[in-house]
Amino acid sequence: MDVLLLGASGRIGTRVATELLERGHAVTGVSRSGTVEDIDDPDFVAVSGDATEVDDIAKLATGHDAVASALGPSDDESPEILTAMMEATIEGLRRASVDRLVWTGGAGGLEVAPDTRLIETEDFPEEWKPVASAAIDAYEILSEADDLEWTYVAPAALIEPGDRTGEYRTAEGELVADDEGDSYITMEDFAIAFVDELEEANAVHTYLGTGY
Ligand SMILES: NC(=O)c1ccc[n+]([C@@H]2O[C@H](COP(=O)([O-])OP(=O)(O)OC[C@H]3O[C@@H](n4cnc5c(N)ncnc54)[C@H](OP(=O)(O)O)[C@@H]3O)[C@@H](O)[C@H]2O)c1
């Protein structure tokens, strides 16, 4: 596949780019800076673009088989910029006639019990609420885009750099936690889950939780 990867220079984005390249896909990696360190591969091109600009997305997405996102707000921006990124990306795909979109989302909107989302739980850290809430708002915009083959793939509650074990579980709309109730995944294993979904499209029109 020829994949346009938005947010390719980020912490999750570089792992997704590496996973795609290892599987033989060609990747165009987008960030505002236009540079992605630590990836040196003939099938990888780093380009500059602004994911809040429909024209940028439409131009960059044209000719690709799918668009993947690991976009995240910068520290100096309101997390609600995520909704502008989502709106521009959706419209950009439409203009470019690309219909597959796999988006790295947030775990906050996943259910931990019937009718209870992670963000609503007592222990959910106050400092994560603005970005978690913005990610839910972005999901709600995506969920209306019935004309696209979208999947919103959320990490576990905690995601960090770590080992690539190849093990993970997914759940539709639900937080994935282990027997002790811990919800965790490494960025490397998240990238595997993300690229598996991009390749296999088993969870189209789904908010997919990942974890161990
Ligand atoms: N447990 C959870 O639910 C959880 C945990 C961690 C992360 N996440 C989500 O996962 C996503 C990725 O996280 P991360 O930590 O990998 O993010 P990150 O390291 O901050 O990377 C963000 C990427 O987006 C790019 N970017 C930002 N604004 C852009 C714009 N307007 N146009 C184009 N590119 C832009 C950045 O590059 P430039 O700055 O050069 O543009 C960078 O490549 C985020 O949405 C985050 O909320 C969820």
From TrEMBL:
GO terms for molecular function: oxidoreductase activity, acting on the CH-NH group of donors, NAD or NADP as acceptor. Keywords: Plasmid. Pfam families: NAD_binding_10. The keyword Protein biosynthesis does not apply. It comes from the Archaea. This is NAD-dependent epimerase/dehydratase. Residues 7-199 form the NAD(P)-binding domain. InterPro entries: NAD(P)-bd_dom (IPR016040), NAD(P)-bd_dom_sf (IPR036291), Polyketide_Oxido-like (IPR051606).
